[in-house]
Specification:
By secondary structure, the chain is an alpha/beta fold. The protein has four helices and five strands; from the N terminus they run αβαβαβαββ.
């Protein structure tokens, strides 16, 4: 990694660590609203869960589930309000799918103001079976659920 990229990455990590407590206080209600919409349709028991960039770990405060990291074994995937921060959303989804089983329940939320919903729907279609889009005006994100289709 180039030194300037490494320094930028470290700056982001430091800023994230410094602001995470504020983030939790400010967004806990918003995040919990999204969690409850997704969790009501997902059984989390006896599942190995992958939290793919869901912020400060508020999700695990809700589900209080211990887990271990085992590649290609995850059976439930959550990614709340993080994919829109990636340079390439689809590559981020594919990277998450690398560590899940075929047919894994997948759940993404993407900030509405950063989203081209129709374009993303087309791009996700070959990756997610039984895709359901939850678009409720009172939630600042659009939610995508379904089953992972592995190559």
């Amino acid at each position: 990694m180039k030194p300037e990229k490494k320094n930028k990455k470290q700056e982001i990590i430091n800023k994230y660590n410094q602001t995470s407590e504020f983030y939790d206080r400010r967004y806990v209600k918003i995040q919990q609203d999204k969690f409850s919409l997704i969790l009501k349709d997902n059984s989390i028991y006896e599942k190995l869960i992958l939290d793919a960039g869901c912020g400060t770990g508020l999700l695990f405060g809700v589900i209080d589930n211990s887990f271990e990291i085992i590649l290609e074994k995850f059976t439930l995937l959550f990614s709340f309000t993080s994919l829109q921060n990636l340079p390439d959303v689809i590559e981020g989804v594919k990277e998450s799918f690398r560590v899940v089983k075929d047919g894994t329940d997948v759940n993404f939320s993407i900030l509405r103001k950063k989203l081209n919903k129709e374009r993303l729907k087309v791009l996700l279609k070959p990756l997610i079976k039984y895709m359901k889009i939850i678009d409720i005006e009172s939630i600042e994100d659009v939610l995508f659920t379904g089953k992972a289709l592995k190559e």
